[in-house]
Amino acid sequence: MPNASFRDLCLDAPLNSAEELSRFWADVLGTVSTEATRGYRVEARPGEPRASQIWVNPVPEPRAGKTRVHLDLRLPEPDPSPLVALGARIVTEPGTDPWWVLADPDGNLFCAFPPGETPPARTTPFELVVDCSDALAQATWWAAQVGGTVHEAESKGYAWIEGAAGFPWNDWVFDPVPEPKTVKNRLHWDVDLAGADPGPLIDAGATLLRRPDTDIFWWVLADPEGNEFDAFGSETR
After folding, report:
1. From the CB of residue 71, how many other CB atoms can be counted at a distance below 10 Å?
2. Among 97, 146, 169, 186, which residue has the fewest nearby CB atoms (within 10 Å)?
3. Tell me: the pLDDT tens digits for 222-235?
4. What is the CATH number of domain 4-236?
5. Entry pTM
6. CA–CA separation, 193 vs 138, rounded Å?
7. CA nearest 109: which of 95, 91, 135, 93?
8. What ranges do the domains of the chain cover?
9. What b/e string do you get for 76-98 counting C-beta neighbours within 10 Å, with b at 16 or more?
10. E strand or H helix at 81, and its extent?
């Protein structure tokens, strides 16, 4: 039985523009932005699991450096001009790789892929990508925590998980990069624990960064390569 299941994504945003960033992502994904107790949320589409929503969290610190987590989106159109009209900025055009790299209004990067043979009805996330040093080790560790099957593209160095518990998209990809992690990820994921506390995750190699206190009722952990994630105990659901 997995120690946890994927819950949702959280995106840190500047205090003075969190609502704007939430509206941007809601417009991109064709959903709505709703004010919540601790910020804003991009609501899951009708019929989709709760984990497909994005929480936008106002934080005092500005974005510094490249986050190691991003979404890949499938476009319904042959180019990302509608996303640019919403406020995205093109960072790189397709070249050897057949996708665009864009930045949202706060500078967070994401990738946009052309429609393919069966265009989606709207811009749709289809995989979550995590930069890492050891792709296979990361994929194997996370699959041990949330289930799923690990695959490896040996010729290209990346690995991915299919079928992780609660995961709302096709693939959870771990992509090797040369640079080490240096700053807190602006985009991170949350997990629901199988039990009341994260002991099994910590025993497996996660690092405890913060316990529940008067301000939060969840644990903040880091995986073996330092990627922060929040863990919610079974008693809080």
Report:
1. 22
2. 97
3. 999 999 999 999 87
4. 3.10.180.10
5. 0.94
6. 19
7. 91
8. 4-236
9. eeeebeebeebbbeeeeeeeeee
10. helix 81-86
